[in-house]
Amino acid sequence: MNSIVEVSNLTVSYDGKRAFEDISFSITPQQIVGIIGPNGAGKSTLIKAIMGLMSIDCGQIKIMNKPIVKVRKEIAYVPQRSSIDLDFPALVEDVVMMGRYPHISWWGFPRKKDYKIVENSLKQVKMYDLRKRQIGQLSGGQQQRVFLARALAQEAELFFLDEPFAGIDITSENMIMGLLKNMCNQGKTLFVVHHDLSKAESYFDSLILLKNKLIACGKREDVFKLDNLRQAYDGKVAAFSNSEEYMVVNQ
Length: 251
Ligand code: ADP
Ligand code: MG
Description:
The chain has eight helices and eleven strands. Helix 3 packs across helix 4 and helix 4 (140-153) packs parallel to helix 5 (170-185). It is an alpha/beta fold and 251 residues long. It has a single domain, classed as Rossmann fold. A six-stranded mixed beta sheet has the order 5-6-7-3-8-9, with helices on both faces. The model has no long low-confidence stretch (mean pLDDT 91). The protein is 30% helix and 25% strand. The longest helix has 16 residues, at 170-185. The protein has helices at 43-50, 92-97, 112-124, 140-153, 170-185, 197-203, 220-223, 226-232, and strands spanning 5-14, 17-27, 32-36, 58-63, 75-78, 158-162, 189-193, 206-210, 214-219, 237-239, 246-248. Residues 43-44, 193 line the site of magnesium ion.
């Protein structure tokens, strides 16, 4: 089957120190892929490298069988909230309009169509009523929904979300997960960095399990095995008897 993301022998370092090495996998379209692993495993670095935001030591990345520079418009990114300066003065609707920038020529202005797409995106995440608020005045869950709306407004094919559920309320988490599932049903492919093992099986179709190298990649039930998880989490995984539920202890 055709892959939408193909990574071969990818190695990435910061100042000579390896973030991860020799990662290879291939992902088919229209699924939600969870990227899981302990802190410092290289999850954020991996998605940044795939999106062409990092220089790489070696390896190859193909998206829709093309190099990243040819398909940039098709890729939307929701960075980890903690990495964004939320004190900058921007209205909710302006943040979402940023998702339209790849479609607006550098000499141009947003058109009627762009405003309509922004409106629809805000309605999908139920933030339209708060469109005139400053982004910094929202709760964590509301901010996350606005960043998802920005990604929706881009009308991309491939989405990368870094820890979208970190530090947000359960209502926003459920709403975002519902939206991600809808997007997948409409043919989109989503990569979600996630650290909570308890949800990993119900949220994702496939999993990429990392710990500075690839531990396992494939269908969630093939990856979500005690052996694999113990390799990733240094043995600190507890299994509940009579179930396939695992949790990390003392991470
Ligand atoms: P994760 O997202 O799984 O927590 P990261 O991709 O952030 O992991 O980090 C992988 C490794 O790279 C870690 O050892 C981390 O300390 C290191 N690292 C991440 N970002 C930087 C950076 N900007 N400069 C130097 N080292 C970094
Ligand atoms: Mg990270």
